[in-house]
Amino acid sequence: MIETMNFPSLEAIKAARQRIQPFIHRTPILKSEAINDMAGCEIYFKCENFQKVGAFKARGAANAVAKLTDAQKQNGVATHSSGNHAAALARAASVAGIKSYIVMPSNAPEIKKKAVKGYGGEIIECEPNLMARETTLQAVVKKTGATFIPPYDYMDVIEGQATCALEMWEEGIPFDTIMAPVGGGGLLGGTALTTKYLSPSTKVIAGEPEGADDAYRSFHAKKLIPMEGPKTIADGLLTSLGKINFAIIMDYVDDILTVSDEEIIAAMRLIYERMKIVIEPSCAVPLAALLKQKERFKGQKVGIILSGGNVDLGKLPF
């Protein structure tokens, strides 16, 4: 049995699912016979690319905001993010009727800035480096009294992301393996917790780009190794693995597999062509890993979380 003293318990994850239900989509699970034939196994794609704000991040942000006290809500929420968490938190705050302050690097994609503004978030720009993001955020929190909601290394966020796998298990599919991409580790950590509570024998395996492989290296070294200078097309996975998530991963994740950008692009194209759905490169990483090591998954029932669909269609890699 999992030690639940520090990590969200199954009861807490179920409570989170109830808490955020009015604010998110219960996303569908899709299959492709053509991809199954190629892979030699049965794949169930959990389509978080259809989620609110176009990514699973809507879950963690909604849960974190819903758990704020009335006193905390008075001053709103703040975070630093150049991507999906920025939009997810701005939306969650808007739904709750509270302010959100989003520190974004000056080079963040215009499409992401537009999304944050569209959800009523106030953008504070900073230099595009982690130190600038953190110091700017500290200044914003000091000035406004807003509560900092980190993008992934935060219990309430992990608890929210864990609801994605909970919905998968509620479908009654006896998964042999569940796969997710790993960047900061919030989705992977939450997925591992839910899965090991409900089906300890099911393997939890992550996919990670070779050009941003800090989770892979940390997992094998059994110590947290921060990523320096990541370079990959999977822009949602450039972040270094969080400390809380590293602890969960070391206890409950079975393996981390790495793939090249070429393999990611091939898997992404396959999903576009065969499933007719829009996904971002980060989403394609677990499928790329499965296709790279087909023998390992032969004949299995495999759940893959498609983490998001926020991609600039003018810059598709194919």
UniProtKB/TrEMBL annotation:
Coiled-coil boundaries: none
Domain of life, source organism: Bacteria
UniProt domain Tryptophan synthase beta chain-like PALP: residue ranges: 20-308
One Pfam family here: PALP
Cofactor or coenzyme needed: pyridoxal 5'-phosphate; Mg(2+); Ca(2+); Mn(2+)
EC class of the enzyme, as a word: lyase
GO molecular function, a single term: pyridoxal phosphate binding
Keywords: Lyase, Magnesium, Pyridoxal phosphate
UniProt record, GO biological process: D-serine biosynthetic process
InterPro entries on file: Ser/Thr_deHydtase_PyrdxlP-BS, TrpB-like_PALP, TrpB-like_PALP_sf
The family this protein is said to belong to: Belongs to the serine/threonine dehydratase family.
Protein name: Phenylserine dehydratase
Gene source species: Cecembia lonarensis (strain CCUG 58316 / KCTC 22772 / LW9)
